[in-house]
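Person: I have long wanted to understand how a fold can be written as tokens. Underneath my words sits a plain record pairing an amino acid chain with its backbone structure tokens. Those tokens are not coordinates but codes from a learned vocabulary of shapes. I should like you to check that the lines agree and flag anything odd. The protein I mean follows directly.
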Amino acid sequence: MQGEKIPYKMLSLDAFSTWLGIEILECEIGRCKVALTVRPEMLNSMGYAHGGISYSLADTAFGFAANTHGKYAVSIETSVNHIEALEAGDYLTAEAVIDVQKKKVGFNVIEVKRGEEIVALFKGVVYRTSKDWEE
């Protein structure tokens, strides 16, 4: 399967990312940019977006970019720093570019943005398996 098509297949099989309303904006080998709009049901008890929303958006971008190389790739370590509070109606983007790639692992830092403002930073390590993505 062509690498840049893999994230679209992944999204079609991903009920959680679909529920979040994640859309793929751009995709090529080693890079994927995704977006979502924060909805009222994504807010916590303080009226701000649950931290899992920006984390999940970045994690999806990370996973999609890592899999464009044609092998099943899974995260083995991730973390997020929340910088700004998010509200219903905020439109967020996250772009993953696998920064450092070894034979079996890749390392990435992803900026989650509201417009040009960085609202969260996500760091991830991915492990690439030997299993190929198929049509």
